[in-house]
Amino acid sequence: RIDYAALRGEVADLVSTMTLEEKLGQMILADVTFITDASGAIDYSQIDRFHLGGILIDANVVPNGQGSYSTNFLDEDMYLNGTMQNWQELSRNLIGAARDGGEIPIFIGTDNIHGNQHVVGEILVPHNIGLAAAHDPEIICATAFFNSRSVIESGINWGFSPTIAVTHNFQWGRAYESLGSVPEHIVVYAQNYVHGHQAIDYERGLIRGTLATTKHLLGDGATFDGIDEGNVHVADLGNFIDVNLFGYTGGIEASVGSTMVSYSGVNTTPPFNIDDSVPMSINTPLLEGYLNGEFLGTPFDGFLVSDFNGIEKAANQGPPTTGTKIPFEDALTIAINSGMHMIMTDGKQVGIPNLETYIGVLKKLVDEGRIQVETIDEAVRRILAVKFAMGLIRKDNGEFAFHYEKGVEDLPHYNRILPRINDASDAADAAHKAAAIAARQSLVLLKNEVSDGAGAHTLPVDLGGIRNIVLVGEKIIDVQTTGDPVTTLFQDYDNIGVQNGGWTIRWQGFEGNKFWQGENKATSRATSILDSLNAAVAESGLDIQLIYPDYASA
Q1: Which one, 342, 437, 467, 472, has the greatest CB density within 10 A?
Q2: Is residue 152 within 8 Å of 109, Cβ to Cβ?
Q3: DSSP 3-state assignment of 280?
Q4: Which residues are paired to 57 by β-bridges?
Q5: DSSP tag of 106
Q6: Pairwise CA distance, residues 46 & 97, whole Å
Q7: Distance (Å, rounded) from C-alpha 15 to C-alpha 360?
Q8: Which pLDDT score is estimated for 344?
Q9: By C-alpha distance, which of 64, 213, 80 is closest to 148?
């Protein structure tokens, strides 16, 4: 494993030369919308001015192709600007702003739940729940690698995956993001996912891929009634930890560098009054127990990062997480003193208008002695140790040198990732083959067995006996746009957007095929159910008719 504790020693001298303002800046993962000027455009100078540790590309942000971003998630056309070239330009500008200011290289972090999903035309893989259904650690490792490879190509160096929550209630709306409900499986899947995602060179102790993130610590899949951002009713704390934290062992074994803290709360006091639920962002015993190894027997030596505005929500959101609200300064104090090392924020949840004010609040807490400088130093050492492992910081002849960009050339060759796809013609072909294997193996439709020994198996289907295939499944919904809602018909057998679900282009996903047409369809190799059936029928040479309404020509 990567020895992050030793790397903290490597960067200690660098931390000792930093001002308090520089240290506090390293602890901020600022949403890109938090560094804008009066006109709403990105003010790149703030990266240098506030010594930022990282920039967040949140779920609904898209580059506008003019050096800035757009974030009106109702405007579908806007998301067509999410090309690989536009993402690369935005990333280069962000990285360059730190470089030109002589700053420590920044993280650029984004969600990559089932591929580099923000980039139009990229190859996507099954969601985590599909990967879990495949029961194939090797393919999980491979798809994570190609996910990470695409993220690097777009100029981003940190991905917020995998979700290793144990799903206890499939009414939880985010169960599809998880690796299932069996802790003994999740620990293996998590280890393989992180291994593929970070592509570690164990000989040199370097993360060659993008930084991975195990999330969300702790209990997000175990909330009462499956309510997202809710609270967990814990009758037996030891059992709760054993079951829900077990998967994190896999991440630690694979040298994951970051863990994201959950929005949810934990309630250990029957009869589980909501006022007794403690949000994870300020849950000192659980955060410290994960970091120091009390729970797993092995400490986590990477760094903890809050979820987006997670500390702010812990302070003032209230139900369904907790019935108790506290001042933001108190929540920030508890979180950092409990081991929250990096803060993902845009300030809006607590009405903080700009970074100067936000960092000023942090500095005030240090000046007042509520947060010790030693605590800040430890947080920054952890962050910089991971940057060191990623090659963003290096030591040349005893002097620190900053290296700003990771590229696909840093990665192992794509044909070395999975023996089953070692004949790929290029990286995109390899990624597609891995995704196709994962998709086939994830399908759980029928048990192909005959209990009494009579008759034939259900599968494979005898195409020779089929004359007609009828496709059904339609809906008419009002699609909200920047104008009036548009009443739109969707046929789900020809709906690539709905097949891919959430976290596709934007957080909520999209209906229809708008983003999978022409060149985008060719590069993503996306096919709807109708596309695939048409191809299979044509390849079979049999006289099979596909029957479905064709409203376009009616």
Answers
A1: 342
A2: no
A3: helix
A4: 110
A5: P
A6: 9
A7: 20
A8: 98
A9: 213
CA distance 524 to 237: 45
Q: Is residue 99 classed as helix, strand or coil in its secondary structure? A: helix
Buried b (16+ CB within 10 A) or exposed e, 516-543: beeebbebbbbbbbbbebeeebeeeeee
Looking at residue 462, what is its pLDDT?
79
Q: Which residue do the tokens 């797993």 mark?
A: 296
Give the total residue count for the chain.
554
CA angle 381, 162, 342 (to 5 degrees): 25
Torsion over CA: 190, 192, 522, 88 (sign) = positive
CA distances from 362 to 21, 61, 334, 368 (A): 9, 27, 12, 10
User: What does the pLDDT read at residue 553?
Assistant: 53
Closest CA to 169 of 180, 158, 185, 153: 180
Q: Using CA atoms, how far apart are residues 226 and 429, in angstroms rounded to an integer? A: 39
Q: Where are the alpha helices (DSSP H) in 390-454?
A: 427-442
The DSSP string of 484-549 is: S-EEEEEEGGG-HHHHH-SSBSBTT--SSSTTSSHHHHHHHT---HHHHHHHHHHHHT---EEE--
* CA 291, 293, 295, 298 torsion-angle sign: positive
* Positions of the chain with pLDDT under 50: 554
277: which residues sit within 8 A by CB, 6+ positions away? 231, 232, 265, 266, 267, 321, 322, 323, 324
What is the pLDDT, as a whole number, of residue 554?
46
The answer to whether 161 touches 112, Cβ cutoff 8 Å, is yes
Phi-psi region of 297 (alpha: psi -120 to 50; beta: other; left: phi over 0): left
Helix pair 373-389, 328-337: axis angle to 10 deg = 60
Contact 128, 78 (CB under 8 A): no
State the Cα–Cα distance between residues 311 and 145, nearest whole angstrom. 31
Distance CA 137, CA 10 (A): 34
Cβ atoms of 149 and 414 within 8 Å: the answer is yes
pLDDT tens profile 302-325:
999 999 999 999 999 999 999 999
Residues 261, 269: contact at Cβ < 8 Å? no
Q: How far apart are CA 176 and CA 180, in angstroms?
A: 8
> What's the whole-model pTM score?
0.95
For the chain, give me the number of helices (H) and strands (E)? 17, 21
| Helix (H) / strand (E) containing 379 | helix 373-389
393 burial via Cβ count (<10 Å: 0-12, 13-18, 19+): buried
- CA dist 355 and 67 (Å) reads 21
For residues 420 and 415, give the distance between their C-alpha atoms in angstroms, rounded to a whole number.
9
Q: What is the dihedral of CA 252, 255, 256, 258, to 10 degrees?
A: 90
